[in-house]
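Run log // design_07
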């Protein structure tokens, strides 16, 4: 989705909210919590998020499409082959040695093979991916529900975010691995999956093999590819640049709602 249409949608949501606040939502509980009405006028990322969460039901799902609407190809963006010898060796071996590490604020930290992940409750969804660079593609994804994995490891009460650590070193000198983070509300959303299939085939390396995040109500850069480790945290300010993601550390918004 282009910057312009995103802004238009943002304006649309703001207007929709303002209209709703004058009428249907007049008696809403949330409105009686008041002064945030003022914050909406601050039209920052937080305002967008509040408007989106208010206008759309909290658990709203992103639009899903039919097989007929699939893009002929799902392009690759950003890393298409991680410059990481350990990753490349694992890819050579068909990812037999792959283990997803799950740790941080969980009762039962552990590692999961691809077989373990495929054994978790799954979801298949045909959705549109929107990159901030202005291209979109519709793809069919199958993966383990992140909620099922988080239930298996038992998130501790202090937990607020899930951080995804990836195999691809970024930057000229490869010193900054790609990473991302989402809050628990998005982590437990039914369309949030750790995908291992794209268009009915094993996820290709160019799209993040063996496991990548799909999170359908945010922009493409949130959808970490080559996920190696999940870290459940209360706060991400101590990680890398402290802004919650590789691109966030370089100025992108942390909440990239669409
Ligand atoms: N690890 C990792 N994840 C990543 C990226 C990346 O370079 N490395 N690029 C992001 C961006 S900007 C987009 S648009 C999507 C692209 O996913 P695709 O390659 O399957 O099209 O992955 C996102 N996740
Ligand atoms: Mo992107």
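design_07 sequence
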């Amino acid at each position: 989705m282009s910057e312009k249409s995103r802004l238009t949608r943002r304006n649309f949501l703001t207007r929709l909210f303002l209209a709703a606040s004058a009428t249907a939502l007049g008696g809403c509980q949330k409105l009686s919590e008041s002064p945030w009405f003022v914050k909406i006028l601050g039209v920052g990322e937080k305002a967008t998020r509040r408007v989106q969460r208010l206008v759309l039901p909290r658990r709203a799902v992103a639009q899903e499409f039919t097989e007929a609407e699939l893009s002929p190809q799902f392009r690759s963006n950003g890393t298409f082959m991680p410059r990481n010898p350990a990753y490349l060796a694992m890819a050579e071996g068909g990812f037999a040695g792959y283990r997803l590490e799950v740790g941080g604020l969980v009762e039962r930290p552990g590692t999961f093979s691809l077989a373990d992940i495929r054994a978790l409750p799954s979801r298949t969804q045909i959705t549109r991916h929107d990159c901030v660079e202005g291209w979109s593609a519709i793809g069919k994804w199958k993966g383990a529900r992140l909620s099922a994995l988080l239930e298996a490891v038992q998130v501790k009460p202090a937990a607020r975010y899930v951080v995804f650590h990836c195999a691809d070193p970024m930057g000229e000198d490869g010193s900054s691995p790609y990473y991302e983070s989402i809050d628990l509300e998005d982590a437990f959303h039914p369309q949030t999956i750790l995908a291992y299939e794209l268009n009915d085939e094993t996820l290709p390396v160019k799209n993040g093999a063996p496991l990548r995040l799909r999170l359908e109500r945010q922009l493409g850069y949130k959808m970490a590819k080559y996920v190696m480790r999940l870290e459940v945290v209360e706060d991400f300010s101590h990680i890398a640049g402290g802004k919650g993601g590789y691109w966030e550390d370089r100025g992108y918004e942390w909440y990239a709602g669409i």
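Residues 1-8, 10-43 have pLDDT under 50 and may be disordered.
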